[in-house]
Amino acid sequence: MTGKRLFAILTALALSGCVGDKAEYVHSVWAPPGASDQERSVYFATDRAADKDWQGGFGKHWADELSCGSVVAVVPPDGEAGEPTGHLKPGSAAAMSCGGDAADFARAVAADARARGCNEVLIYIHGFNTLFEGAVLRAGQLALDTRSGCVAALFSWSSEGEIGRYVADIEHSSYAVPELEAFLRALAAQGMRVDIVAHSIGTRIALASLSSMARHPDPPPAGFVGEMILAAADVGADPVNNDFAHLLADARPFVRRTTIYASGGDAVLAVSAVAHGDVPRAGRRPLGDRKLATAGIVDVIDASDAPAELLGHSYFGMSREAVSDIAATLRGATVESRISPPATLVCKPPKDAASCDPVLPHYVLDVAPDRRPDFWVRLVRSLAPLVPRIELAPLTSGGE
Length: 400
Fold this sequence. Notes:
Layout: H1 3-6, H2 8-13, E1 38-50, E2 58-75, E3 87-88, E4 94-96, H3 103-115, E5 120-125, H4 132-145, E6 151-156, H5 166-189, E7 193-199, H6 201-214, E8 225-231, H7 243-251, E9 255-262, H8 267-275, E10 298-302, H9 315-318, H10 320-330, E11 345-347, E12 363-365, H11 375-383, H12 386-397
Parallel strand pairs: 1-6, 5-6, 5-7, 7-8, 8-9, 9-10, 10-12
Antiparallel strand pairs: 1-2, 2-3, 2-4, 11-12
Helix pairs in contact: 3-5, 5-6, 6-7
């Protein structure tokens, strides 16, 4: 069965929100309706082919080489879908030399950071169904809303930006791994501290790149990635053969702390599990992932209550509760400190218990009851994975 047929359900369900980083849905979670647009300069490295007919000058096709540059994201305030949207500032795009293995580009990024009196870069790696413009806007929004004061960057792989092209996006994501590895190694060679926010398929690119470094004869310095945030990870987490756990272990020498955000209500990952032969996705297992937690090294946050689009996949950038906790994480706040006022988390006691489990704590985003998904949203999300099974039934039963 084609990826288009398997994921037709997502087109039908995504009527009230986006699946992937679509430009029309990116906005600040803090700026109220009517506030002024905000601007943020974003460096980018992409393996997309240049195409003047697409916003930002890069289309959906794979180029088999990196292009580098910078552009200004104009991020709108909060508002209803369909209102004036964000955009890339006209005339702000500037091409830059990537150099061999992204060395020239990394030097330019490092020089800018040091001119600002800091030595850090926040890199966003997007998920599937995302075009270049939406990815730049999300990178800019995250940098603005988390108040990241240093340099913002984007690694944009060649997602085709079409909901029915999930399988093609998976294939293209694998091509991006050596390019991201080269960029990260180049930043490490400049002595930069790197923070990563990766979403969905972007988490697998980030983990695979770091895992590859572990096998390189000349690995980068230990701990050169300060904070790695993995939101809605579309990576297999089969209890018998847990790819996610293996990749985390490979990446661990290079990352000071990893924070995993997972939601049991993520309908996109529920459908992805069906597409992968019923292999659970790490980003949909907030309770199962807790077994991977290691104090101060790997934290697991349950984001099931976070407001998001209808299918519950983009909470990491659309929910002020999630963005607040990500901001605290990037500042280095411990998970324990984030349950104290002004709290971004609560520690949920086990069933029939009065207090937090000290051995396997269940940290949950602090979301007010009136902002949690309502009955109808939960119903839609629970039904989403049934449709691909209905599509598959004639193929597995021998029917016409």
